[in-house]
Automatic annotation (TrEMBL):
UniProt-recorded name of the protein: Aspartic proteinase PCS1-like
Gene3D superfamilies the record matches: Acid Proteases
InterPro entries reported for this sequence: Aspartic_peptidase_A1 (IPR001461), Peptidase_aspartic_dom_sf (IPR021109)
GO biological process: proteolysis
Organism: Trifolium medium
Superkingdom of source: Eukaryota
GO molecular function: aspartic-type endopeptidase activity
Amino acid sequence: MVFGCMDTDTSPSNEDSKSTGLMGMDLGALLFANQMKLTKFSYCISNKDSTSVLVLGNGATPSGLVHYTPLIKMTTPLPYFNRFAYTIQLEGIKVPNLLSFLDRFTLL
């Protein structure tokens, strides 16, 4: 299996017949981690000029100094809520040299 990144949502017609697509990494029963019987995975997303890392299985346990975003469980269903999605709590939006803290219901 080969993993890669993309920075466009279109492909040349001669590429359409090749095996390309998206890999689901959420909590659903039919998704990649569950089908592979993986209980852990870690995905570090970098900008397009750097290397991102996807680790599957027990190697996904972080070691050393790691900054992470904790996941939360949604208790209130939202109109667009995917019950299988990993969810995080947004605390602010940073614009260069400015950090704006938001009321937790501002974006609902």
